[in-house]
Fold:
Amino acid sequence: MRGDADIDEHELREVFAGLHFSLGKADGEARLLCKGAPVGPEVRTEEAGLWASRIAGHPVVREVMKEAQRAMGALSSLVAEGRDMGTVVFPDACCKFFLDAGPEVRALRRLKELEARGETHRLADLVAGIRERDARDCERALAPLRPADDAVIVDTSDLDAEAVLAVLMAHVERKTGQCRSLL
Structure:
């Protein structure tokens, strides 16, 4: 996240050449590792989310990340979260979900998450950031934000985490016998 999001292809390839992503354990939990080290909470900051959205449409970023994610998925079943997991990265996944909620609901959830980490943000700024990111991600030419044709769309606006999980697991249980693996 250092520098400008407009990085040329050669420089991006050099950056990614030094990275290797894998799944492993850290502190007794399954974690994403980069160069063998656990990826930390810094990827969940507002700054990281907005920066990721700005570079996500770059062809080199999409290519490298898709390859890394597919490589991890080839090693074991996994649950993958992301704006193009069901449409681009794992189009053949047995179970696909598109979780949605209004920008205001998402911003309030995000505010609570950030406050729990001791960060202070204005709700209006978070709403504006979410709207901006959604618009940018929906309009990008490469891997735009959209549900997969076969995704189960779940409006989480009025559901807590446990209720969302119950909806997802009910669908997974119905699909379990219909596919070789659950991705």
About this structure: Strands lie at 21-26, 29-34, 37-38, 97-100, 152-155. The two ends are 29 Å apart (CA to CA). Residues 9-178 form a domain with the Rossmann fold fold (CATH 3.40.50.300). The longest strand covers residues 21-26.
